[in-house]
Amino acid sequence: MTAMHADSEASRLEKAEDLRQLRESAEDFASRASPLVRARGLRGTALGYDRAFWDALVEQGWTGLLAPQECGGFAQGFAAAAVIVDALAMQLAPEPFVPAVVFAGRAIELSGGGPVHAELLQDLVGGKSIPVVAFEEQSIATAVDLTPRTVRAEKFSGGWRISGTKFNVRAAAGADGFVVSASLPTGSQSLFWVPVASAGVAVESRQTTDGGDSATLALDGVVVPDRHLLSQGSRAEEALTRAFDEALVMTSVELLAIQRAMFAMSLDYLRNRVQFGRPIGSFQTLQHRAVDLLIQKELTAAALGEIVERLDHEGAPRMRSRDASRAKARAAAAAVQIAKDSVQFHGAIGYTDEFDLGLYVQRTIVLSAWLGNAWMHRRRFAALDNVTEGAQA
Amino acid sequence: MTAMHADSEASRLEKAEDLRQLRESAEDFASRASPLVRARGLRGTALGYDRAFWDALVEQGWTGLLAPQECGGFAQGFAAAAVIVDALAMQLAPEPFVPAVVFAGRAIELSGGGPVHAELLQDLVGGKSIPVVAFEEQSIATAVDLTPRTVRAEKFSGGWRISGTKFNVRAAAGADGFVVSASLPTGSQSLFWVPVASAGVAVESRQTTDGGDSATLALDGVVVPDRHLLSQGSRAEEALTRAFDEALVMTSVELLAIQRAMFAMSLDYLRNRVQFGRPIGSFQTLQHRAVDLLIQKELTAAALGEIVERLDHEGAPRMRSRDASRAKARAAAAAVQIAKDSVQFHGAIGYTDEFDLGLYVQRTIVLSAWLGNAWMHRRRFAALDNVTEGAQA
Amino acid sequence: MSQDLNSLDDESFRRTVRAFFAEYYPEELRFPKQRLRWAEVKPWFMALSRKGWAAPGWPVQYGGMGLEPAKLIAFIEEQEKWGVARTPDMGLTMVGPLLIRHGTEAQRSQYLPRILAGEHIWAQGYSEPNAGSDLASLRTEAVEDGSDFIVNGQKTWATLAQDATHIFLLARTEKSAKKQEGISFLLVDATSPGISVRPIRNIAGGEDFCEIFFENVRVPQANLVGERNGGWKIAKELLTFERIFLGSPKQSQYALARVREACALLGLERDAGVQDRLTQLELDAADLNALYGRFVQQVKRGEALGPDVSMLKLWGTETFSRIADLLLDITGTAGGLPGDIPAPAGDSEEAINVLTSFYNARPATIYGGSSEIQRNILAGQVLSLPN
Amino acid sequence: MSQDLNSLDDESFRRTVRAFFAEYYPEELRFPKQRLRWAEVKPWFMALSRKGWAAPGWPVQYGGMGLEPAKLIAFIEEQEKWGVARTPDMGLTMVGPLLIRHGTEAQRSQYLPRILAGEHIWAQGYSEPNAGSDLASLRTEAVEDGSDFIVNGQKTWATLAQDATHIFLLARTEKSAKKQEGISFLLVDATSPGISVRPIRNIAGGEDFCEIFFENVRVPQANLVGERNGGWKIAKELLTFERIFLGSPKQSQYALARVREACALLGLERDAGVQDRLTQLELDAADLNALYGRFVQQVKRGEALGPDVSMLKLWGTETFSRIADLLLDITGTAGGLPGDIPAPAGDSEEAINVLTSFYNARPATIYGGSSEIQRNILAGQVLSLPN
């Protein structure tokens, strides 16, 4: 027992050292390769991001961070993924790391170990394909709901025929295909792989407030071969839910990085901006407001500290979902609060587009709403608490 | 038209001058006859107040301020009543002016003009009797509900027999009788006069946090004569609702007076208490907090300004109820906020019983809960808003 | 004709006003979601101008409608009910009343008719990059040169200055004086050589505010309003007046209507969690309206507004901000999308706009004196708390 | 025996502890609604003492259980689950660790065993009527007289000092020095002539705090802890340590449990308005717990706590205060009644206590450094914002 304890302590220290090195190289890469001016310039472009930069991420091996080794990945887990997500978010890199590598990649991986899954993961790891998940069925959802209802798939001799509309598909404009949740005639649910080039697929993009892309995906009798059925029944449900929860936690990590960036800019401004002959950071009300933001940021960090760690361990799905909703609830609300107060601290200049704070504010707005906002996730957290038996939503 | 306008302007000015004089004499009387030490001394006594002081109010004519002239009253309306309520509240006079003169008195008056009503009002005006209303049927009510259900009255040859339990009857210990709401076998509702000395009446008092009295009133087959049926059906419902709403507004006036007193004490302390070599009121966070309290107080005053004025005019009952709930919602929430922050401003001493601030805090707690707290009245306000037709709750 | 309007009873007056709106106000501009530019709203302003209704609050002798206070309020209320857009109104609400009070006869006859005719559009030149909350530390200077001033400096945060023909500004005319004491109030033709206006793109993607650069701009000394070096007093008077304007419950009431619409479209009308918050905000706006009414009465009685009017601006803008927060919450997954978002599950054409309110709430608590400045004013000048 | 406990696996350890509670802890004292007095809780303390479990965190060499951190936390958790009351613990949590770190060998052997035996009950003498937030401005003075100090002054805000046999206090031993530099830390026998203790009735009707008057009280110089005039450093160390204690999520978790019970009794379990607020508070407490865990880890690793621990006290007490507000709201018309209120419509014996939490929340944000002081500390010492 004591020996084991020492061993696990040693391996823990080793792991921590690995993560420290990864963090160092990730931050170095991100700040060098992705200065804020890059993020600024990509706003409102066709994809909203840069495929060449994605290739550089592939080069770094980061697209394979989560995928299993047999698919060319490194299976490093979420503690490592969080390091990359954090470094990229700090620089506002707009590439869809969480939508593709975490959400779509994990949905595929958790769906099964067949040849098509392996192929899709290899393509993701190798940069040949960027997949995203299409699961929302309301233009505006006010409650978290992962169950497909209006998008339906039907079996026919040539494979499956899928029809219906998905909403709020982030980073759809540059996606090579979609992991689509659909209901089956049996009433159970399923996940399909739908290449963007399939006949009947229409992607109607619109710009998000951070200059990124969010699309409505119309599927009009889209035909896919049998092997594109990635999973069905409880396996599909579990894969989607788990990948969703993992994406929630990683999005929360992004939001924490953005909180840090905005808070650091604010502290800097408070220390240096002079009004009435004094730095404005010497005014007690601004000091105390900054303290309240500090606490929100540290609560986010503390919560994510335990939640990211638990993500790498098998646990009860309900607890994982609770953890994930708790993470998003705090990270999103704290980020919005920090965004608003940072603009207030800065005054007029904080509201101008040319000042970089706005880039973080815009990303905050997008990420806090994506996959459900703080209000929705507080309710999901509470609903999961109240489920004592039976199926969960 | 122009002449009329000038006339009504003149009468308005005259009325304002009358009110000014009333205010002056009321404040003079209250501060002389009811110093805070009196309120302090009466806490936890059997009645929670002083019947001799009540007689002094009778002497002043204030118990007759609302009652019609044929009952010995002066029918001065609520603008005048508010002046008295305000002056007494400022000194924390614990006598049940609002429970008896406003709530019970108006419930009786609005119930009808029969001989028993006149007699009861004469007794109230003349100080012979202090009536209070017993209408709540839950030990803890979380929604405003004026409909009697569990207290029932049945007709028999000797009159009416009433059974059931009423809760949270404020100032019951010193009351000479109760205006009791009861449901009739027909399903409609009624108001009865139940003298405290009636057989089967049991008053179980407990002390409120301000040292006053709140009782559970158990009615065990209490027999009253026919003439004690003050009203029934829609008249009873309307009388209770209107008197309740008027009591709500007058309680809000009390809460505003208490807000003013606590705020004045706090400003005084902020200006004079020295810590770190400066008056604590020079610290910007305390200044800004004081400003936020100022705004709450002024919102209460502005809202009451228009609501008290409307109370003296006939209007749609639903609008009056909305007004009343709006008044209580603001007045109670603002008072609780001012109470809490005043204690915080004062630090340790603000939490001690020997410092007078606590007396105001305790009264705040009692009045903010009486007849329903801010949360309940926000909901009542919203519910009344949503009723577009049909009966109201 | 304005005399006639004042003699109408309330309902007839409102009917008259509504009839005019119905005839002349462009249907497609009703209830606009964003502030309109001059080009969009000019035809409507010209209709008002031709009717003699451009300046409802100005005295008749200066070409206004001379409406008595109750009528003026009814006029404004009817505008709001009809969803009439705000026109560029700095000339009407600020410069006009200012010149009527402090201007010379020559200034009045030069400027007032042209404001009414829609020829002059005014912008405000107060804030500077280094003089935001600490406005009196401004550095734009006006140096005497013969019968002119030569103005150099930079203004910012000037609402819709890209549409302006004229600018009223604060400039330093005496460098050695205490900072509030060396400031003068000037009227400047925006087409003067040396002026350049640059719209500032904001984080919502709009361009409501501008920077204005002054490089050796000649301004006749005749364009000085009030005393030389006496501009701070005039500016403060305008700012106080602006605060009742910025503290109007209108913005909150409008945003509450948007929340109620969203609740209906999203099936949240019976959601107690949402409704509890909404009701709280409705009461916040209702009580703001009552407080606003007290200050309006004060103006009606001809009393000067005191520093306590800052309460209005504070509570008004912070209430608006909380409403915007609620709207952002209840529109859930659509929160990242600017513009109109189609309502869910709908054959309906209904749409919800989420972010306009959220973004508008940001400058609301900054300009016209930030919330912090308002609280300082109230703490010092109203509560007399020590320094 | 403590060694044995440390070697148990977690579940066996917890079972052992629970068994002891079940046997010795008085049933009627489980989950007390108010802080208990010494007389009420003494029998239980003596049972702990006899078992050798009085001081779970102290090293074995001083009579403690010497529990390793994980076990110590399990011990505390089991106490909380069982509803074990807090004993007067200033001696155990403050004086003991202080003497182990800064005391002389003589002080340790004189005081530590008696704390463990329940003979000495300690009270804190820090605050004074004119030295609240500005603690260092304290005036109680200790003047040298032979081998004694003569102490004169007044302390206030001393928790349950009416039960104390001893007082640790801060007194000024050097008047001419800068205010923080002339303060010493003294141990005082509460039965010394010249000491009088007066309980202060509070607005909740309780008497949890006392004033202590010192009139020419003789205190041996041997009772000085640490350096003469070096008391401020020791006090600050204790205050920092106290903040992790005062920032424990326990108080909030306990209050949340009361809210949940009230919701069940009042039929509010499906009321979205109430549940939205409750969930927010539950998450506030959950994330507080995570933050608390980080500081506990720091203590476990033997690292000194920095000023950032003030975050815990701030967030903990303010979260508790918001929970108390919610409880006051949802208990509606019963809000004015102290003590237990029978649940409505009940044959059940269930009751709801509303006001205890509300009143307890008041001093929580005042003592141990008010919320304002904590924010000042964080702004200055953690964020390095300018003065």
From TrEMBL, chains A, B:
InterPro entries: Acyl-CoA_Oxase/DH_mid-dom_sf, AcylCo_DH-like_C, AcylCo_DH/oxidase_C, AcylCoA_DH/ox_N, AcylCoA_DH/ox_N_sf, AcylCoA_DH/oxidase_NM_dom_sf. It holds the Pfam family Acyl-CoA_dh_1. Residues 243-382 form the Acyl-CoA dehydrogenase/oxidase C-terminal domain. Transmembrane segments: none annotated. Residues 17-98 form the Acyl-CoA dehydrogenase/oxidase N-terminal domain. Its cofactor is FAD. Keywords: FAD, Flavoprotein, Oxidoreductase. Gene3D superfamilies: Acyl-CoA dehydrogenase/oxidase, N-terminal domain, Butyryl-CoA Dehydrogenase, subunit A, domain 2, Butyryl-CoA Dehydrogenase, subunit A, domain 3. Belongs to the acyl-CoA dehydrogenase family. This is Acyl-CoA dehydrogenase family protein. It comes from Variovorax defluvii. The lineage of its organism: Bacteria, Pseudomonadati, Pseudomonadota, Betaproteobacteria, Burkholderiales.
TrEMBL record, chains C, D:
The keyword Cytoplasm does not apply. Residues 229-382 form the Acyl-CoA dehydrogenase/oxidase C-terminal domain. Residues 9-119 form the Acyl-CoA dehydrogenase/oxidase N-terminal domain. Its cofactor is FAD. Keywords: FAD, Flavoprotein, Oxidoreductase. It holds the Pfam family Acyl-CoA_dh_1. Residues 123-217 form the Acyl-CoA oxidase/dehydrogenase middle domain. Belongs to the acyl-CoA dehydrogenase family. This is Acyl-CoA dehydrogenase family protein.
